[in-house]
Design goal:
By secondary structure, this protein is α+β, with helices and mostly antiparallel strands. It is 55% helix and 12% strand. The protein is built from twelve helices and six strands.
Amino acid sequence: MGPLVFALTALTSLLLLNYIAKQIDQLVGKGLSIGVIATFFGLSLPFTIAMTTPMSVLVATLYAFSRLASENEITAMKANGVSLKRVLIPVILAASVISLTMIVFNDRVLPASNHRLRQLQTDIARKKPTFGLREQIINQVADRQVYLKAMKLSTDNRMTDVTIYDLTDVMRRRTIYADSGKLAFAPNGRDLVLTLYKGTTIEVPRAEPGRLQRASFDQNFVRVEGVANQLELTRSDSYKSDREMTICELQNDVARFEAEYTKARKDLRDALLAVTKEALTGQPARPPDISSITMFNVTPGSPAPRSPNASLGRSYCDLTVRAKAAAAKAQAFLRPNLYAATVARQDTTPKPQPPVQAIVVPVDSTRPPPDSVLPNVIPTGMPGLVRQMPVTISGSADNAKVRMRDNQRFVNTAAVELHKKFAISVACVVFVLVGAPIALRFPLGGVGLVIGVSIVIFGIYYVGLIAGEALADRNVLPPSVAMWAANILLTIVGIILLSQMGRETATTRGGGLAELIEAVRHAFRRERAPRPAPVEGR
């Protein structure tokens, strides 16, 4: 537990500092409160923990088993009849508990924090930097519209020898000179009000540069809008990206796009059958009815029919539904009064509206549909609906191909993120299978072994994740294979190393980092057989 907590704290701090360094330019100079900045970095913490927890498990495993071997604890256990596999069982069980915890964490905590973090980043980006002036230089007050120069500024917001260059009117240029003035914000907290005393206003029309208008004043007021603003936090935002969805929301997207893909494939088959029939009979065939106007609930993660294809996401969501049902039965049995009140309160809640079904407008290839048909098919009051133009069989086939390609890409995008949540969590167990045998084989590696092996395994694993995600997005590999390839590869390596556990001959006299480097070098060294000597006379 000590190495695990230390590694988790150290790695999380390093990654969080790196993230802070990248985001600091978006935070400084905007007058944000300490609470907002603390919330920003607090919401950044779950993503960092999700990445560093498997790393910490590997570091702790390498350190613990290397120390057990270097202090001859493993030798003492073997002498007392305790096998190495028996020593490894509680560690694997602990790693399994961490993996299950990370699955729940990646399903519940991480998407919610990512969603809230994106909202906060958008709100901060909308906020303008803190307004400030400097003496004896031209300060930009409004974006490329109003510039102000004051030779002297006092602590009570009073100015001396003021010059204002006003470019807000594209038809004329205005310059204001004043002996003194005063700065203040309007009651709305966004507009700047300049009170000027004893000055002159000069205006020059752009169309007539030779004409000049001069006006003197004893007191003048200049209002510049939108100089500063308050941080306005977003209260409601239904949009979610794939990293902001739970596992079941991602599974809903997968099921929805799979259904659209199946429908598009059926339309393509009907179009190809129509082409074949037209080629065989010689008579123009009617194109299949393909909807060019599809209206359905496209809110990311919204409920969708259960996918007919067995998958990890579907199994997890089914298990979640059963767990909720079991929890409800337990609540009804233990606290019947509270359960009845909860059910009554849920019954009075307005039911969500079902998604709008697809609207299919049949099309004849020989003539456009009459105007009298469209009002009966397309409901009124739906903006964005246009009358479908006549299509051909080739157009129907192309339409189906495009829909198949797009929906397959959407399926891959959602499935990749879904499998990634599981793969990164299960990596805790995989890293134990790989790290323990390596640490026992090289007991004197020390900190160098822990750092070196961790970097190598981290690099292999996360490069595999990134490459797998790119291949899945391009439809080169299925999302499940792409996301689990790194886990499968390291699991095979771990099983091979575990099969050789108990054969180690290294003690405190060997098994150092130099031996590990030599073993790696020997593994990649190519042994070349000597060429046979030429035989004389041949």
